[in-house]
Amino acid sequence: MSGLPWKPQVADPILVKWNPLSSSTLLAVLALGLGFENCSGGAKSFILHPGDYIIASLTPSLPVDGTEPYVLPMQVGCGSVNMPCVSVTVCEVGGGSCKTIDHVLVDTGSVGLRIFSNSLTGLNLPQIVDSQNHHLSECQSYADGSSQWGSLVTADLKLGGFVARAIAIQNVDLAFGSVPPDCQSPQGSATAFNGILGVGFFGQDCGAFCASPDHGDNRIYFDCQASDTNCGAHSISVAMLEQMQNPVSQLPEFNNGVILQIPNVSNIGAPPLPGFLILGIKTAPHNTPTGSPVVLQPSASGDIETILNGQTYPAFFDSGSNGIFFPNFLQLPACRQSAGFYCPQQTLPLQGTLLASSPAINQPVQFAIADADQLSQQTGFAVFNNIGGPFAVEFDWGLPFFIGRTVYIGFENTSDGLAVGPYWAY
Questions:
Q1: Quick one: what percent of the chain has pLDDT higher than 90?
Q2: Which of 68, 106, 221, 278 has the fewest Cβ atoms surrounding its Cβ within 10 A?
């Protein structure tokens, strides 16, 4: 038994900005939400010496050590396979009580801070009432078939040495009001993590779609109070400035993007290891890239493209996904134990080509898919650069892409001398 949850995790939200999935596609990806913990018996042993599982990085690293005010130490493999986590401090607005919350998933595929209610106990965080007198609540759905439900509340948020004042965060709580019936498989409490820090490159979690009166029935935002027994009947439009905001963009400085830096590992993986979430891009000497990173600017929907074996797919980079997920046109065998992952008989080397049109980019990327069942038998190992599984119609460059790289996420409507956001770079 590995001692760590082995289940696919695809935290990319099903939102208009991210090419919403059709109902038939959604049914196809619900299988990714099946939970699994490997209890197959004996552990596969390897002879390792200290540091053997760390190998050279694939891209130049930045010279940070975690003590800088704009750097958040990050643990990769914190409670679940390929999960990158940081600690955040949530405070009552204006200098009240604070709580530091650990095991918060760093997710480049979503926007906004969402914390399970049990981690916010003792804090007085008032529910947000917007300019239309709506009591704001939200159902955030993810591509693995799960969702998070709860009210939007106001808090001060400390990230590193900086504070975002009076911003909206989600208090994830199934006991709040009544969960809308189409909010599927809602997560009720903390399991492997206590919340999600969404640092994708958009400014809001839904944007113009949810702001439009024509999309009042968007099934994302709701007018709901704690006593409401029919919240699902009250889907509403919400002005962009009153939606969940990208929390890093609300900091007083170091707010134009984020950088994820994770060491590389060998093809047998590694125990949990440290990385960094770095605030800002080119705002200080140690968050300024060396060399010339590859810059990928997405389409208006937030996607680029990836070619694999002659097939072209919409694609995105998502640290909240714990594997590389793509359509199974190669007929890779499914795992018997690690449901939702691929288990080829031998590690399969592959090459995808990243495509972006502005500027024109055609960039090959080598990766590999290994037998997840075999890897899962290693007691205490939690970081792998070669696991993946099926995804219906898109190519999800999950955390294995980030391992060994320094990856830049430039926020929309910003410019840092590297590129005009939104963009990914590495």
A1: 77
A2: 68
Instruction: Return the structure tokens found at 24.
Output: 């038939």
Domain that holds residue 209: 71-250
- For residue 326, what is the enclosing H or E element? strand 324-326
Q: In this predicted structure, what is the pLDDT of residue 36?
A: 28
Domain at 37, CATH number = 2.40.70
Q: Show contacts of 120-123: CB within 8 Å, 24+ apart.
A: 120/90, 120/171, 122/97, 123/90, 123/91, 123/92, 123/96, 123/97, 123/98, 123/99, 123/155
Q: Provide the token pair at 138.
A: 């939200």
The whole-angstrom separation of Cα 205 and Cα 107 is 12
**In a shared domain, residues 242 and 355:** no
- Picking from 15-19, 199-203, 283-287, 374-378, which range would have the lowest pLDDT averaged per residue? 15-19
Residues 75 and 39 reside in one and the same domain: no
Tokens at 332, concatenated: 């890779």
Phi, psi of 340 (to 5 degrees): 95, -5
Whether the CB-CB separation of 125 and 92 falls below 8 Å is answered with yes
User: What whole-number distance in Å separates Cα of residue 225 and Cα of residue 116?
Assistant: 17
Same domain, 366 and 313: yes
Total of domains in the chain: 2
pLDDT band at 43 (very low <50, low <70, confident <90, very high): very low
Q: How confident is the model at residue 95 (pLDDT cuts 50, 70, 90)?
A: confident
Q: Look up tokens 């750097």; give the residue.
A: 71
Q: Specify whether the CB–CB gap between 319 and 409 falls below 8 A.
A: no
- Our CA angle for 84, 256, 384, nearest 5°, is 20
Question: The whole model's pTM is what?
Answer: 0.89
Domain final position from 250, 268, 300: 250
